Amino acid sequence: MRLKPEKIDDLAHKIIAEFKQQPEVLLRVDENEVLHEIKSIITMDLKREDDLEEEVREILQKHMKRVYRDDISYVELVRKAKKQLARERGLIL
Hints:
Layout: H1 5-21, H2 31-61, H3 64-69, H4 74-89
Helix pairs in contact: 1-2, 2-4
């Protein structure tokens, strides 16, 4: 996960502040409950991305001989594979 818990908390508070400024948004539950849900969603999304990256690394690990032999950029392969898997699974990175 790339974000520290403090940053996730900060983002959640900014989202709530933005909600409060929108007249068409009405919070029907306690603000703390909404904050908790926002933090959970951000954390879950970051975890899904981490899991995706780990899966990409495992896939590419099986093909490292070819990567070295053909002098292919590992970083570029990770980026492309991650993008493709995300697209196939309907994830937005």
